[in-house]
Amino acid sequence: MLNDYEIKLAIAPIAWTNDDMPELGSENTFEQCISEMSLSGFQGTEIGNKYPKDPKILKVYLDQRNLSVASAWFSAYLTTKPFEEVKKDFIKHRDFLYDLGAKVIVVSEQGHSIQGDFAKSIFKDKPIFSDLQWKSLTTGLELLGDLAHEKDMEIVYHHHMGTGVQTTSEIDRLMKETDESKVKLLLDTGHLLYSGEDPFEIFEKYSQRIKHMHFKDIRSAKLAETIDKKLSFLDSVKIGVFTVPGDGIFDYKPFVEKVKAAKYRGWIVVEAEQDPAVANPFTYALIARNYMKKTCDI
């Protein structure tokens, strides 16, 4: 793509099989997932738990379908575990992604996270980091950034519902208290909308530091139900709070225009965790792909 921007479009496997709730999509195979990604017109994928753990084997499957690896999620526990333990797991994850040709590593701090706890209300019980925990997080992330640089890779921090880095003020603090050369940002439209934040504001503040993006949308009625019933994050996923671009509340056209104008170079990953028995993954992949093409010219 010979433009000032270079956008590659991927899709996440979580629509086919949910790693946090394996009962959602347990019937969907890895081969079905990546074949339908390719048939939908996507160029890449992130990594799910059903994917082969050997990068050589995985690469064969993906090459047959003209898919590349955009990245994969890494759960950091910098606020709750010794750094050396996190480092060991990170290096293994980094090397796996490096062997697959990925350039960025998605990192999210899971210390104190409630995103997987059905007993916790996603808004009422959100964790708040202490100053000491913030220091452990920011120092640890910079060290992980150094480790990524050993392989000419970058870490991109994933703000996420139910964690200590969710809101605009928390994203601002993370960006302020980390070295921009070591810690980049992943912008996730769905998590910003869910939390009540403004994706435009975050992009405009940090456009030159954003090196990876997740595009998903929100069903407003389901978000209202989540708030009214004080649901957990996973319960809100099960009722359908998330959907793909083109099927929710957010108009991506002006947002993508800003992304292009900022000369963004990297992956945009369509990601919408839903119950695949209710929202057929292939159908929604096609909805998203057609929307991104017709409305956003990607």
From TrEMBL:
Assigned protein family: Belongs to the IolE/MocC family.
Species this chain originates from: Spiroplasma alleghenense
Gene Ontology biological process terms in this record: inositol catabolic process
Higher taxonomy: Bacteria, Bacillati, Mycoplasmatota, Mollicutes, Entomoplasmatales
InterPro entries per record: IolE (IPR023952), IolE/MocC (IPR030823), IolE/XylAMocC-like (IPR050312), Xyl_isomerase-like_sf (IPR036237), Xyl_isomerase-like_TIM-brl (IPR013022)
Cofactor: glutathione; Co(2+); Mn(2+)
Superkingdom as given in the UniProt entry: Bacteria
PANTHER family: HYDROXYPYRUVATE ISOMERASE (PTHR12110), INOSOSE DEHYDRATASE (PTHR12110:SF41)
Gene Ontology MF, one: manganese ion binding
Protein name per its UniProtKB record: Inosose dehydratase
Enzyme Commission number(s): 4.2.1.44
Pfam families per the UniProt record, alphabetical: AP_endonuc_2 (PF01261)
UniProt entry keywords in alphabetical sequence: Cobalt, Lyase, Manganese
Catalytic activity: scyllo-inosose = 3D-3,5/4-trihydroxycyclohexane-1,2-dione + H2O
Domain Xylose isomerase-like TIM barrel per the UniProt entry, residue ranges: 40-280
